[in-house]
Backbone:
């Protein structure tokens, strides 16, 4: 099955008007065939001819109708358990979206349906099925992004690096995601122009229920192939997450994705330490200023004092400008940190700002830029090192923050 090309999508809508609107949105979808039918969800049965060889089901549902919700639940869990289902609904509240996600639908597309939203949802659903069919159970790699203080551009770097990782493995299905664990100031989904109504809080409310289906259902999906678990929209206390919830989330994410990038808050707590314990690599992002270099040294010392010295740590200098006459030189920074600098990401404020504003990879705005090239070198180096490292099925340590 070619992803995004030649897919067989069957859509069931509740009215002819909705069907016409959907047909219009389905034009020019890279050869994907969308067969639109007007009917009730109770009419969706595997033995009906139109559902033969279907790749994705697109179902129009009213979350306020208990009859339609029950029919949708039966479709997902009983009638088509192996077929990804995308729901579309009008005027859905956050609670409605959560309800549909928890039933097991892959994504929810709001009405009126926009072509880009529909195409992204269908392709993601197809990639999810492709991954499930592959039976690949190898644990993915967890890469934690640690900030040397605020304002270093760590989230931007994580998002742009994530785009590149996703694009390198796009043909293999959903392989890369970002977990935005910066609870109070997380902006990863905003930088990707994804208005996700569900996210991290939907997982931590019931950590015992976290599985692959629930995780993928609360992910936001970018057209690049990069998924994101959004931070809460409202400010919440850091202790709302338990270490048990983090363990569940990381375990499932590593089973679902080949690469998991974790954007951590700038502060330390029990669960952030647990994330680092589970990591295969840590990217320490800093800048060449006295405060940031000093904070990077403190972070490095903290990692070492808590027994995390065995996890590879890469120091990344962000917004680097050659010949910059102010601040700290690279040589001085390396001396202050008592270690070398692994990667330099070039500075390009205008290009990076435009990419954030549009929610796209930088290459879509300007190809072969110095900043994109330097992030590409970082990604290639990290992937190469991780590809040769041993796969870990369990965390290295089980220690508390206060040790």
Residues:
């Amino acid at each position: 099955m070619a992803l995004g090309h030649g897919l067989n999508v069957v859509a069931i809508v509740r009215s002819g008007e909705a069907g016409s609107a959907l047909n219009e949105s389905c034009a020019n979808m890279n050869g994907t065939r969308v067969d639109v039918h007007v009917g009730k969800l109770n009419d969706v049965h595997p033995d009906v001819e139109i559902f033969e060889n279907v790749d994705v089901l697109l179902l129009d549902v009213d979350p306020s109708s208990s009859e339609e919700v029950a029919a949708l639940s039966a479709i997902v869990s009983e009638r088509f358990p192996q077929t990804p289902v995308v729901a579309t609904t009008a005027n859905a509240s956050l609670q409605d979206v959560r309800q549909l996600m928890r039933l097991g639908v892959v994504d929810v597309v709001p009405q009126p349906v926009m072509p880009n939203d529909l195409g992204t949802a269908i392709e993601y659903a197809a990639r999810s099925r492709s991954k499930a069919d592959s039976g690949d159970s190898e644990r993915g790699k967890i890469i934690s992004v640690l900030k040397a203080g605020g304002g270093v551009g760590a989230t931007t770097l994580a998002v742009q690096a994530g785009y590149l990782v996703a694009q390198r493995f796009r043909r293999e299905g959903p392989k890369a995601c970002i977990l935005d664990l910066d609870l109070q100031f997380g902006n990863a989904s905003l930088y990707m122009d994804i208005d996700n109504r569900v996210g991290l809080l939907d997982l931590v409310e019931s950590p015992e229920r976290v599985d692959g289906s629930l995780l993928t259902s609360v992910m936001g999906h970018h057209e690049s192939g990069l998924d994101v678990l959004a931070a809460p929209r409202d400010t919440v206390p850091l202790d709302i997450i338990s270490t048990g919830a983090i363990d569940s989330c990381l375990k499932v994410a590593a089973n679902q994705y080949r690469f998991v990038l974790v954007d951590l808050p700038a502060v330390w707590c029990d669960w952030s330490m647990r994330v680092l314990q589970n990591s295969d690599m840590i990217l320490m992002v800093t800048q060449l200023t006295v405060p940031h270099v000093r904070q990077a040294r403190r972070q490095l010392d903290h990692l070492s004092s808590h027994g995390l010295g065995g996890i590879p740590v890469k120091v990344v200098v962000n917004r680097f400008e050659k010949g910059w006459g102010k601040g700290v030189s690279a040589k001085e920074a390396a001396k202050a940190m008592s270690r070398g600098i692994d990667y330099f990401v070039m500075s390009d404020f205008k290009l990076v700002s435009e990419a954030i504003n549009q929610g796209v990879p930088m290459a879509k705005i300007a190809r072969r830029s110095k900043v994109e090239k330097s992030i590409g070198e970082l990604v290639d180096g990290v992937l190469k090192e991780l590809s040769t490292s041993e796969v870990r099925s369990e965390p290295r340590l089980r220690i508390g923050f206060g040790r």
The radius of gyration is 22 Å. The longest strand covers residues 313-320.
